[in-house]
Amino acid sequence: MQDQPPRAQDDFAVAHREWLRERVAHFLGRPVEDSASLAEEGLDSVAALSLYGDIEEEFGPLVEPADIWAYPTVRQLADFLAMRDTNQRESKVRAAFVFTGQGSQHPGMTSGLYLNSTGYRTFLDEADAAITPWTRQSIVKLILADDPAVHRTALTQPALFAVEYALARTLEEAGVRPVAVLGHGIGEFAAATVAGALTLADAAKLVSMRGAFMQYLPPGGGMMALYVTPYEAAELVATEPEVGISAINAAKAIVLSGDRAALERIEARIGERGIRCRHLAVSHAFHSPLMAPVVPKFEAVVRRVPGGAARVPFYSTVYGRLATEPLYAPYWTEQITAPVRFADAARSLLAQQVPTHVVEIGPQAVLTPYLRRMGGGLRGPVCLPVCQGPASDAVDLAGVISALDAGPLAAALSGA
């Protein structure tokens, strides 16, 4: 980024002070000086929230409500606004967040980050506190213990949600605001929370209930990845009612899910045509007809959760497109058995939002190769995972934040 000339920076700050002085005077009913203390002048919590709303409307997401009290005078708050606004206007980064689904978990995931990154630790503890009343088991303790129980569905789903929520909030705290979000399977809950369609408390309840309900389904289900088109996959499952297409990850990257014996029959048929497949190490047949017994129980839980519209563009892998509808109970119920239309949703996001960067948010890189191919390789957006795998730590996170032109290093380089 190019440094702004000092004179231009001063003028920019003065303009913010004039604007803020006028708004504070409006709420107080009298003029104020730049050195005036907002609290001592009588700005109460209601007026402060209204001022926050005015800032959002005028400048976009530059501050949080708490910042109004953290910068006590008109001058200090205005200078903070000017600094954040300068960075936002100068930055050419448009980052989309893509949240990984089940299967990306591993024992000890993000433990290096938790031990060495204060920001990440704070947000994972926050998610853990929201989840523990439902699981009766700490996700943080599970991770730090390097416990293989993380592969049990009842723990996998809340653990992945907690990790992805904490990773996304850590990036946001560093100044990386997503222009759009997308989630693969269970990753949609973290995406919806970051987008403001679910509260942390509601999402924690839903992912914990969802995982527990699925854990106690009868065994016998499986999942199988194969290199065929969606049309070929539809033909393969047409004669097997207990098997469905569970994910469309790319033009020729399909996952089938359902009864294990039926999957083996399909494997035998495609083997005769020279098509290879790979059985996935899963406990159940997710996003398949075998998930149907979960639906009534989950529907009873989710209909008591308000849900709402996303405040950040939310690309649905249920619909395979931008979801303009509020994410109420019917959406989360349908998501249990619906195929994950990742390829359609990702292509729509890339075409409509034109991000400069796509960040895979999860404990290891799974979706990044698909995203790079969809984006056109070197001609498309930079695609990078927050975590490469088990060895990822705070140094790797700092590198990602720097690549996204955010954090203290980027601010120093920009002259902010």
Query: Within the largest sheet, what's the order of strands?
Result: 8-7-2-1-9-10
How many helix segments?
Answer: 18
Please identify the structural class as seen in this structure: alpha/beta
Total strand segments: 10
Biggest pleated-sheet summary: 6 strands, mixed
How much helical structure, as a percent, in the residues?
40-55%
Low-confidence stretches: 1-9, 408-416
Mean pLDDT rating: 88
Question: Strand content of the residues, in percent?
Answer: 5-15%
Q: What Rg, in angstroms, do the CA atoms define?
A: 24 Å
The secondary-structure element order is HHHHEHHHHEHHEHEEHEHEEHHEHEHH
Q: Kindly, what is the distance between the CA atoms of the first and last residues, rounded to a whole number of angstroms?
A: 11 Å
* Global shape: elongated
In short:
The chain is α/β, with parallel strands linked by helices and 416 residues long. Helices cover 50% and strands 11% of the residues. Strand 4 and strand 5 (253-259) form a beta hairpin.
Give the helix/strand layout.
Blueprint: H1 6-28, H2 45-59, H3 67-70, H4 74-90, E1 95-99, H5 111-116, H6 118-135, H7 139-144, H8 153-173, E2 180-183, H9 187-194, H10 200-215, E3 221-226, H11 230-237, E4 243-250, E5 253-259, H12 260-271, E6 277-279, H13 294-302, E7 314-316, E8 321-322, H14 329-337, H15 342-353, E9 357-361, H16 368-375, E10 382-385, H17 394-403, H18 407-414
Helix pairs in contact: 1-4, 6-8, 6-10, 8-9, 8-10, 9-10, 10-13, 13-14, 15-16
